[in-house]
Amino acid sequence: QLGSVRQNLLLGGSTVQNFAVSDVFLHEQFTERSFQADIALLALRTKANVDEFVRPICLPMKSEDAGQLTGREAVTVGFGMTESAPTSDQLRQLRVPIVDYVTCLASNREVFGRALSAGILCAGSTAGSTVCNGDSGGGLFTEEDDGSW
């Protein structure tokens, strides 16, 4: 399902496009026991219609250095916990800074000491809003100068 901004699939509305998946391509270094390479591409059986709610996104080239993103603002999305509810039915977004390894580790050594390694981006702030339970898998996106994501 593409274009859904509601967690309740019955309330998806006119923005939703439903698809069957024809193939799944897991990253060659993915393992279920770590946070490494937890990305996959899904091949759809039919073509998606690009519109306001469904857009392509660029993936970085293998040669690009993740450190070049440090200091940039990124957007993450999710249906996670809010101040007033265990989850949100409405898809929410949050702008967060991409931070370097040392800053990330210092923010919560107990958690990030086990999870951080080369190739993992860290984003967020110890002040203000943050991602929460239920936001996992939402992705982290940066906008390029040409308007692409």
TrEMBL record:
<dbReference type="InterPro" id="IPR050127">
    <property type="entry name" value="Serine_Proteases_S1"/>
</dbReference>
<dbReference type="Pfam" id="PF00089">
    <property type="entry name" value="Trypsin"/>
</dbReference>
<dbReference type="GO" id="GO:0005615">
    <property type="term" value="C:extracellular space"/>
</dbReference>
<dbReference type="InterPro" id="IPR009003">
    <property type="entry name" value="Peptidase_S1_PA"/>
</dbReference>
<keyword id="KW-0645">Protease</keyword>
<protein>
    <submittedName>
        <fullName>Mannan-binding lectin serine protease 2</fullName>
    </submittedName>
</protein>
<dbReference type="GO" id="GO:0006508">
    <property type="term" value="P:proteolysis"/>
</dbReference>
<dbReference type="GO" id="GO:0004252">
    <property type="term" value="F:serine-type endopeptidase activity"/>
</dbReference>
<dbReference type="InterPro" id="IPR043504">
    <property type="entry name" value="Peptidase_S1_PA_chymotrypsin"/>
</dbReference>
<feature type="domain" description="Peptidase S1">
    <location>
        <begin position="1"/>
        <end position="149"/>
    </location>
</feature>
<keyword id="KW-0720">Serine protease</keyword>
<comment type="similarity">
    <text>Belongs to the peptidase S1 family. CLIP subfamily.</text>
</comment>
<keyword id="KW-0378">Hydrolase</keyword>
<dbReference type="InterPro" id="IPR001254">
    <property type="entry name" value="Trypsin_dom"/>
</dbReference>
